[in-house]
Amino acid sequence: MGLDDRKLAVLRAIVEDYVATQEPVGSKALVERHQLGVSPATVRNDMAVLEEEGYIRQPHTSAGRVPTDRGYRLFVDRLSRVKPLSPAERRAIERFLAGAVDLDDVVHRTVRLLAQLTRQVAVVQYPSLARSRVRHLELVPISTTRLMLVMIADTGRVEQRLVELPAPVPADDVIDLRRLVNEKLVGSRLSDTPPLVQALIDESVPHLRPAMTTLSTVLLETLVERHEERIALAGTANLTRGGLLDFHGSLRPILEALEEEVVLLKLIGEVEPSTLRVRIGDENEIDNLRAASVVSTGYGPGATIVGGMGVLGPTRMDYPGTIATVRAVARYVGELLAQN
Amino acid sequence: MGLDDRKLAVLRAIVEDYVATQEPVGSKALVERHQLGVSPATVRNDMAVLEEEGYIRQPHTSAGRVPTDRGYRLFVDRLSRVKPLSPAERRAIERFLAGAVDLDDVVHRTVRLLAQLTRQVAVVQYPSLARSRVRHLELVPISTTRLMLVMIADTGRVEQRLVELPAPVPADDVIDLRRLVNEKLVGSRLSDTPPLVQALIDESVPHLRPAMTTLSTVLLETLVERHEERIALAGTANLTRGGLLDFHGSLRPILEALEEEVVLLKLIGEVEPSTLRVRIGDENEIDNLRAASVVSTGYGPGATIVGGMGVLGPTRMDYPGTIATVRAVARYVGELLAQN
DNA sequence: ACTGGCACTCGCTACAGTCGAGTGCCAGAG
DNA sequence: CTCTGGCACTCGACTGTAGCGAGTGCCAGT
Lengths: 340, 340
Hints:
By secondary structure, chain A is α+β, with helices and mostly antiparallel strands. The first copy, chain A, has helices spanning 5-21, 27-33, 40-52, 69-79, 87-98, 103-118, 171-185, 193-203, 209-225, 252-259, 261-269, 319-339, and strands at residues 56-57, 66-67, 121-125, 134-143, 146-153, 158-164, 231-234, 276-280, 292-299, 307-314.
């Protein structure tokens, strides 16, 4: 229960040393590397208490201590101070993102940047369509029975889909269709479109109705319900950093999880009003990731949140550093989006 | 030099057994599992010759033999018969690809399919823009000084880019611009556009020239020169299959290579008239992949080739099976593209 | 409440010995 | 000339033993 200040200091020291050295840390080494002002024996007693409370554990009887997931949690919640980014890092972020020409480019650069700065796996969700507004819809005739539907969202995201029309539609009608859908849908949230789309069908002049129905179906099915979310990933090579000591010796489950878009979305897509989320080991809902930790946050222009981004690494990671980096990158990207 | 038929049969047996068991194979086991019709001693003599010629080697003095890259090469070139796909596999391919609604979808499904069937890492290049023809160019005004340029290629690929205009351009002029670029460029190969684009600028009426210049720059820079090629990847989790025995114990270099688009393009993008290419271990130009083999081929509607696809795995892979799968998938995708 | 001391645990390393798979070579048979 | 059986040899894998040392828990003393 009562964890006095020194015990907390000991826990902090253990976490820091273990993260740095990747080896179980013993009482003697601890008093040497940190100014705790007490003897190893005293530290041992504190350690015994910490172990009893489940914050640290011993891999083997004759080894030092290692933080448990619970220990990391306490560390993150109460013991770590935010580690301010170095000017060099700030500059790197700015420089890296400044050159982006495109939304795709922004996302791409961001994910690489995150991976590089944290030396871990980075995940970035494209601005969610559900949270975007329609800026423009374009219909491009490919043949008399085929249209390419292009949707441009206010976040800069562009999606396209081929539409197979039930019957040939002359060029003039395509113009009408384009005008209609734009009039009705521009400015609305994609998540709010279903009723609007229905109205669109109902209000169409009869000879346009079949085409409009197909068009609407595609609009709803693919743009709203399906593809919906896209994800960018980078830094998987960083998983091999710890020489397989992290992740309980097998990258398999991690790599598998990273291949599933759904899983990734779960990881970083659940954007809550809260600013930043840290999930440590067991706290992950996804079984395959029980050996990993995830630091994630939402991003977007101003206070709005249009998507998530995050970083995945071993539970034994530099939490303060990672948190600072993720937060900073998210803010920069948000500012960048706000400019457009 | 003279490798008589039996020696070749021995080599084939060694490759097959080693691929299957992942363990060095000895003379005794060989005669047991294959009907070679001779005694272990004879096989040993043959093995000695094969080793001298560099087709196999011994990991340790008291171990069995393992094929060398050169051995695999000989096996692929002269000893393996094509392994026909099982009907189940054929059906899987058809079913998997049939549901595709979109080019993106096709590529996405293809890469997953390849990874699943071969149980290795799969790479698919999107239809190369350089090899595509322009079907349509669309300009969507975002603001008075911003246009969204959308290009639709005849392969179904769609690319977009934001264009920052040097000065505001009224809506009417946008229409003119659109007409002009479409008149000039539709139907032409992207790789042939540079001169056409130049002509476009020269022939523009003066007041459109600045806008046209910017537009052309973007067109060339981003669509032709930069993004250019896109790549889809799947199955990285399969790298962990061999329990790190493959790949000389470290996935690091492989994962690193797979993160570089440029590298991937080198892998599968160099599409030659030849139908299918197998690069074994050392034969790879990319240092990081010296421990891996790559089976790649081009694909496209009919005889045209619009992109590449391939599979990467340990040198110790099932070449006949992989080759058959890659070839079959590429053909199906080609047919699918031809239908559009 | 902290400290020094001490006995104890147990993983790691080194070393020796055994086992066995696999080889190379050779003499003899076909 | 080719193949075979036999035999001695090599060397990695595995086992068991022993010593080392980091680290602990506990206790008596300040």
